[in-house]
Amino acid sequence: MKICVIGAGSSYTPELVEGVLAAPLPIEEVWLADLPEGRERVEVIARLARRMAKRAGKAVRFVPTEDRLRAIEGAAFVLNQFRVGLLRMRSLDERLPLRHGVVGQETTGPGGFANAMRTIPVVRQIAEEVALHAQDAWLLNFTNPAGLVTQALVDLGHRRAVGLCNIPRITERMVVAGAGVPPDAVRISAFGLNHLTGTHVFVDGQDATAMVLASGAAEAELRKSAPDARLPEGFFPSLGFFPNPYLNYFFFPQATYRHALEDALSPEGTRAQRVQAIEAALFAHYRQEDLDEKPPELSQRGGAFYSEVAVNTMVALSSDTPCELVLNIENHGAIPELPDEAVVERNALVDRMGVRPVSCEEPMPRVLGAIVQAVKEYEFLTVQAALEGSRRKAREALLAHPLVPGAEAAEGLLADLAAVNAEFWPVLR
After folding, report:
1. Which of 87, 91, 133, 280 is deepest in the core (most CB within 10 A)?
2. Would you call 246 a catalytic residue per the annotation?
3. To 10 degrees, the CA torsion angle through 221, 222, 227, 233?
4. Are 123 and 152 in contact (CB under 8 A)?
């Protein structure tokens, strides 16, 4: 079995390598593809991966390359984990919206829009290459904004595409830690969009959502992005679902904006700037010739459980026994409030025959449904804007987003974002 990783110069890759080496799959080759400017990083990671394979006693061949077509050719799985414009552009995604009084974030709001507009044209090229050179491959997308990028792949007709996210896995771990229950006893039921889900929690088959909400786990997560938010009494328990942490941007926009602005003005800077420092330290570790395992410092980078999500999906897609996973996939009626063609984040049964969404047990709560439906329309418009180079649809996408306060803000944001992204975005007409 051959696996292709696009964007393999990412500091996340050793996390993936660890999972691949432990996977119950006949993996023989992992091709590590990146652009020429990422050559040194990919070669560093390839050498570390070989040392990790030797330590694990696995005869897996790791091939660094700048030839994406060769990397894709004949692959069983193609994993997207690239970042167009690297952390330099992520930093602008985080900073520029703040000038317009809107929170800046790489997947949510105008920052996520800018990221998607850079990324979707590249994803279109990759989808075409996979269709020509690895027709039977599954394209697993971890590239942010993951749900929106997967929507583009589906709209382009790539039916063997699945979006991955580690937040559902993190939610499971939070429940296990907060409720003190065995991991095998927990099942989560997620419904919504990537970075915009509600979750019902079941322990030993019984609905334990209220217990988890009462534990304070949701509020603890909120305080990371909105530490000075003033919560109405009983706010989280009254929701009836465990909220994805990214819902903070919609529930508490002013508090998250203030916190983001404080970060941008601080000596440490935005999250992108802090990640740059973390990555510099990580690659210093990766270059050490005696390092033959994933260093513990990688946990500071984010992306916890990435390898579990990716490997579990590959194993399930190679198995005759269905496995239930939370993925970003076509809706096909699983969430009645959203169109069939919408890419949603939902539980799915996965096996060699493909991916089948599990129908929701009950209607989506209206408070979540109102936000989700608005953001889904923004996603549809963003995909169209990126694929068609339409300025009108780009403006409408921003105007449709709940975090953008009106037409003047949408037009100002579009002008500023287009100017700084001229190197990457399609020409808007």
Report:
1. 91
2. yes
3. -120
4. yes
